[in-house]
Automatic annotation (TrEMBL):
Domain Peptidase M60: 188-546
F5/8 type C domain location: 760-912
SUPFAM superfamilies: Galactose-binding domain-like (SSF49785)
Gene3D superfamilies named in the record: Galactose-binding domain-like, Peptidase M60, enhancin-like domain 1, Peptidase M60, enhancin-like domain 2, Peptidase M60, enhancin-like domain 3
Domain of life: Bacteria
Name of the protein described by the UniProt record: Peptidase M60 domain-containing protein
Pfam families associated with the record: F5_F8_type_C, Peptidase_M60
Length: 1066
């Protein structure tokens, strides 16, 4: 709008008000142009501020950068949202230029307003006060309240500047610019100003910047915060400050009905430690600040803590008074009572080198009972813990000349920024949390920050007593300092919690080593579903390669790098060029955290850790393999290490090793169908050095041994449950592992034959469903699990091996259940216990996959109901026989159960079972001999020729259970060779037939007791081996042999030295 005056006036300010206040609507920009008496148009810089009258109405004040001589003036306003063009003005006033503001400002000698000019005296203030109190056209100066504060501040400074506003010197060493290389996302560059300001209040900030003129931009940003905020509305960068006077309106950061406002901070955005910056705030309420950044002198540090505690006591004592003063005296404020948990004046900041606490002042007093020494102990503990954590990351400020020459300090120095633990409002389910630049804790947890006792350790770092701040705080710190290249949320951050509480005992960790041993001997792929089990993988590497106790602190980067495994890991993550590459294959990192970690860990160990990671279910890709294979393989069994074993090794350097020694005693002490019990012992060695026994199950297939590690135990017994194997010969190879992680010579037990129902064990399984249940568990967050715990689905009840625990679920969609088996298994059938009836089960859709991406539907199913146990078998659609499929994932869609209750007690996956093979015996002697006369097994007819076993053949006979159309028998000797005769050209000759009852015109079916004959024609007969064993195979397709698999075998039997004559009859 354009206004023409009746004369030329010297204009300094413009004020206006809208017709009515509109919530969420304000003007944030102004543009002023004027015509002088000669008609020349000139623009003038201006600022616009929204203010509030005593009656609660808003108005706007536009201040011109300099006085203008205007005959005519044009004023434009801008809304923060560019698409808004609505402007309403109820009244506008133009104010003549008044030098009062400039005259008050000119009282100061410097831009920071810390020193008054020598010419200032009492009369100067009296004159200025009189001018401020004098009305012009029956109105005071539009900015009278703020000018009064400035004049009062100048007068107070004149009388005793130390008693009013504090000067804040900005530490230009604290900047995000220095920390970009660290790979840490949770750092904070805020520096406290010691002021808490109410939202929508105006504060004046004077900035001094050495070498810059008033009005020039600085590398300082003002940050406003909300007291007890939700994580999403904690803070806002309000403005970039200029040298000299800055007038700032504190933004409203929350719409909730609480006191709005909070502590103010600045953050330095430059990267020049020599830059000098200082500032002072006028407005708001002063709050106590303890700044110990860079204070290393113990006496000085304690003096500052003592003074701070006195300040805290005084501040807390007047909190209600400060609250009333801060709220002002209005009818509305009378009804806003003081609440210590939300009051914006009840706050304080404590600044350490690597941490800042922003918590209620009253909680500092409550947590310490006013004892400055107790506070000092707690702050020292936080310093120590942060240095312990950063040592694990290979970060320090202590570098040798050689390190500096090699530029190691450039990427391995401690962060210049700090972490910030703040008093915050928790979101649903959380106990505390970690966000982008802060860690949120609630009221009750803030006292623990100021009354924690320190950890004490001996010179070697062995824990003596104490515990740092608890699992939760360290857990959240871990989130904020996790190395991004290999971070796994809720897992790797827990490493810091563990290092802060571990005491070299197995009960000092958050996982069960028996569970760990089950996992690393499960032969599965993929991570465990339990975060603490996953954590153990990272912890074991620390135990395997760090030869000092957990709390040992090193003086220099070189010592840290040499002695701390994860210091090397994170150093290489920050600078891959420093990683070893003995075969010139350089370390590279990508986007896969697991692949990155496998490479980094092998670099730090300078060992090929392939077996370790495969034991943990992680499979290296080709790039990872190529890098790892440069190094010598790690031969120690580091996947079995535990805390007590490492402590024993460090304390018993001369302990006897089991390496390559025959020290194991093992025997099978019991067998109950598919359960085999072993008795274990060591001899001729110090049993104190024993860590445990690795158990390997040995099967025979194609005449060769097939070994599979099935367990590790620290006890002297072990039970192997062989659910998925039936009618197979089994032996066990037992290896003793000493506490130095060396392997003894293995001992193999005798061989036995076991039975089973074909069901697979479930220790590696996981389950997912879209159903919800009243049985689902939602545990509250607490100190030991501070982040909002995920709801635990009760669906695990369908795979807990407890038939009487029935899962009950429902969904509005079609229900599905996805089973992850942990590895590829052979699937023949599914078994549902205490579930729906057979008709409904048959309607389920069954899909299988090996990669959880591409699924194949199994169309042909048969079900059998046995008193509530429904078994679903699969066939190929052409033959009625059970067909096998390989799968890692099984998805079960429960058709017809949308919005209906689903009840399932247990789901079992069944592999091949039932087929069996045996060698015939007669009076305890194997039925192996020389055929006394021809055996015709197919008579000649019009459609078929005679087929026979010729007289003089060496025959082996036995019985089987299975299907003659799909089974075949092979015989092997003790050297794994197929038994047969040879011709002159060396070709192997052996034949076999499988006999079953004639089905007439029907199909051959399953037989419970059929016979087989295996023979070597006499013309090819030669010397026989000493022992023989039979293997029975089954195929899915009798014409193509598709799906061939071993289903049963026998124990070895001795072949008689003198073969008897055998006669075969139909």
């Amino acid at each position: 709008m354009t206004v023409t005056f009746d004369d030329t006036y010297e204009i300094g300010m413009i004020s206006f008000a809208e017709v009515e206040d509109v919530d969420g609507w304000w003007y944030s920009a102004s543009d002023v142009r004027y015509w002088d008496e000669n008609g020349k148009i000139t623009s003038v810089n201006s600022t616009i501020t929204q203010l509030k009258c005593e009656n609660g109405r808003f108005y706007y004040l536009i201040k011109l950068e300099k006085p203008v001589q205007a005959k005519k003036i044009k004023v434009a306003f801008g809304h923060p949202y560019g698409n808004q063009n609505r402007i309403t003005v109820a009244e506008m006033k133009f104010h003549k230029w008044d030098s009062l503001e400039a005259d008050i400002t000119s009282l100061y000698e410097d831009n920071l307003h810390l020193q008054l000019k020598d010419t200032v005296d009492e009369d100067t203030f009296t004159t200025l006060q009189t001018r401020l109190d004098t009305k012009d056209h029956d109105e005071y100066h539009p900015d009278k309240a703020m000018l009064q504060k400035e004049l009062n501040a100048a007068k107070a400074l004149f009388e005793d500047s130390e008693n009013l506003y504090k000067v804040t010197n900005v530490n230009t060493n604290i900047t995000a610019q220095k920390d970009k290389h660290l790979g840490i996302t949770g750092l904070n560059a805020w520096q406290p100003l010691g002021v808490s300001a109410k939202a929508e209040d105006t504060v004046i900030i004077y900035v001094g910047n050495e070498g810059k003129k008033s009005g020039e931009n600085t590398n300082l940003q003002l940050v406003a915060t909300q007291q007890h905020a939700e994580s999403s509305n904690l803070s806002k960068v309000v403005t970039t400050l200029k040298t000299g006077r800055n007038e700032v309106v504190i933004p409203k950061l929350t719409s909730t009905d609480v006191e709005r406002g909070g502590a103010l901070y600045v953050q330095y955005t430059g990267n020049d430690p020599k830059e000098k910056l200082a500032l002072r705030v006028m407005g708001g309420t002063e709050i106590p600040v303890l700044n110990l950044y860079g204070i290393t002198d113990e006496k000085q540090r304690q003096e500052k803590i003592n003074a701070y505690m006195d300040e805290i006591k005084a501040h807390v004592a007047q909190l209600k008074t400060l609250h009333r003063k801060q709220k002002g005296f209005s009818l509305f404020s009378i009804f806003q009572r003081y609440d210590e948990k939300t009051s914006i004046v009840n706050t304080t900041d404590i600044m350490l080198d690597q941490m800042m606490f922003s918590i209620p002042a009253s909680q500092v007093l409550a947590g310490t009972n006013g004892d400055a020494n107790k506070l000092a102990v707690s702050l020292n503990a936080m310093d120590d813990m942060m240095l312990l954590f950063y040592q694990q990351k290979g970060l320090t400020n202590a570098f040798s000349e050689k390190d500096v020459a090699n530029k190691l300090h450039e990427k391995n120095s401690l962060p210049s920024q700090h972490l910030n633990i703040r008093y915050m409002k928790m979101f649903a389910g959380a106990f505390m949390y970690a966000a982008g630049n802060h860690i949120g804790v609630e009221w009750d947890q803030t006292t623990g920050l100021v009354n924690t006792s320190a950890v004490t350790a001996d010179e070697q770092g062995k824990w003596q007593s104490g515990e740092y701040f608890g699992w939760g705080i360290a857990h959240e710190i871990g989130h904020n300092i996790n190395q991004g290249q290999y971070a796994v949320a809720e897992v790797t951050n827990n490493y810091f919690s563990l290092i802060a509480q571990a005491n070299d005992r197995n009960d000092g960790v958050r996982f069960d080593y028996d569970v760990i041993y089950d996992h690393v001997t499960s032969n599965g792929t993929g991570r465990s579903s339990d975060v603490f089990t996953q954590l153990a993988m990272y912890w074991q590497l620390h135990l395997a390669y760090d030869r000092y106790y957990n709390y040992k602190m090193f003086d220099t980067y070189g010592q840290m790098f040499d002695n701390v495994f994860y210091a090397r890991v994170d150093s290489f993550a920050r600078d891959t060029s420093k990683a070893p590459a003995p075969n010139k294959i350089a370390l590279t990192l990508g986007n896969d955290a697991d692949q990155n970690f496998m490479r980094l860990a092998s670099a730090a160990a300078e060992k090929d850790l392939s077996e370790f990671f495969m034991r943990w279910g992680l499979l290296p890709d080709e790039t990872t393999k190529a890098y790892m294979e440069q190094f010598e393989k790690e031969t120690r069994a580091i996947y079995y290490v535990n805390d007590e074993a490492r402590a024993y090794e460090m304390e018993h350097e001369s302990a006897e090793s089991f390496l390559n020694k025959n020290v194991v005693s093992a025997n099978i002490k019991g067998q109950d169908r598919n359960k085999v019990s072993l008795a274990l012992d060591v001899h001729n060695v110090d049993k104190e050095s024993l860590l445990g026994y690795e158990i390997t199950r040995v099967l025979m297939e194609n005449g060769k041994q097939k070994e599979e590690v099935v367990g590790f135990t620290t006890e002297d017994t072990f039970e192997d449950t062989i659910n998925s194997i039936s009618n197979r010969s089994v032996s066990y190879k037992v290896t003793a592992i000493d506490k130095m992680l060396n392997r003894s010579v293995s001992l193999t037990t005798k061989t036995i034959k076991v039975e089973g129902d074909g069901s697979y064990t479930k220790e590696n399984w996981s389950i997912e469903t879209n159903m919800t249940s009243t049985q689902d568990q939602e545990n509250p967050a607490d100190q030991n699990d501070p982040c909002a715990p995920e709801k635990v689905s009760a669906s695990y009840m369908m795979m807990d091996d407890k038939k009487d625990t029935v899962y009950v679920g429902e969904t509005k969609e079609t229900p599905y259940i996805t089973l992850s088996l942990g590895k590829v298994e052979t699937l023949n059938a599914l078994r549902f216990v205490n579930a729906q009836d057979a008709k409904d089960v048959k309607d389920f859709t069954i899909e299988i996959s090996k990669d959880n991406k591409t699924y194949t539907t199994l169309e042909n199913k048969e079900v059998k109901d046995d008193n509530g146990v429904v078994t679903m078998y699969f066939n190929n659609g052409n033959d009625p026989w059970v067909t096998s499929y390989d799968a890692s994932y099984i998805r079960i869609t429960l058709n017809g159960y949308r919005n209906k209750e689903v009840r399932i007690g247990e789901i079992d996956v069944l592999g091949p079972t039932g087929d069996n093979v045996e060698l015939h015996t007669a009076n305890g002697t194997p039925a192996i001999g020389i055929l006394s006369k021809d055996f015709v097994y197919q008579e000649e007819s019009a459609t078929q020729k005679e087929m026979k076993i010729p007289e003089g053949s060496i025959v082996f006979t036995g019985n089987y259970k299975g299907n003659p159309a799909y089974n075949v028998v092979l015989l092997y000797d003790e050297n794994g060779q197929i038994i047969g005769g040879t011709d002159t050209e060396g070709n192997l000759h052996a034949e076999q037939i499988i006999l079953a009852p004639d089905p007439g015109n029907g199909l051959l079916g399953e037989t419970a007791s059929g016979s087989w004959v295996y023979w070597i024609d006499g013309q090819y007969a030669a010397s026989l081996p000493n022992k023989v064993r039979a293997e029975l195979y089954r195929v899915d397709n009798a014409l193509t042999n598709e799906g061939q698999r071993l289903v049963s075998d026998t124990l070895f039997v001795e072949i008689p030295e003198t073969l008897p004559e055998i006669e075969l009859n139909k």
